[in-house]
Amino acid sequence: KCVRGRLLFGAIRLSPACMTKRPILIHPDPRLKKVTAPVAEISDDVRRLADDMLETMYDAPGIGLAAPQIAVMSRMLVMDCMKEEGETPRPMVLINPSVIWCAQERSVYDEGCLSIPDQYAEVERPAEVEVEWLGLDGKTHREKFDGLWATCVQHEIDHLDGKLFIDYLKPLKRQMITRKMQKLKREMARD
Ligand code: NI
Known about the structure:
Blueprint: H1 3-9, H2 44-59, E1 64-66, E2 76-79, E3 92-102, E4 106-113, E5 116-126, E6 128-134, E7 140-146, H3 147-160, H4 171-190
Antiparallel strand pairs: 1-2, 2-3, 3-6, 4-5, 6-7
The chain binds nickel (II) ion (NI).
């Protein structure tokens, strides 16, 4: 019953537990606007959640996923920006992450979000950031991210603070996207 996870992760599979794909919340949803609570300790539940989040992200497919997107209000995210063909996957699990330094230089990226399907818009963010987090190994990690990784980690940390990429857009554009999502949710509810 674990074949799927094995196929996805091969040799780099993170844990022997079975992974479960979880439903992703679609904007607008009050849970996507909430500030999440820090994770107190690395328990089996946290490890299982990390596996499920990775499974859900790869299946979507996406390059990042934050816990509130699957209705878990914990300060935790997963990401893997090695999306180019032939690159070795690098599944990352960041618990209680925070940006501890950001570059003056900005970069603009056409962002999307699994909670706002098929909608993309340019967002400007620091081009490079240093992030500190707790790993599943219980240790504190610190790393500088640039390029797509920098955009992705900032987008996902925003989720943990109840912020979406559309919050950076002009109100009119944001309202337009929100209305499209309301329509999409009505259609999904009918099916
Ligand atoms: Ni997102």
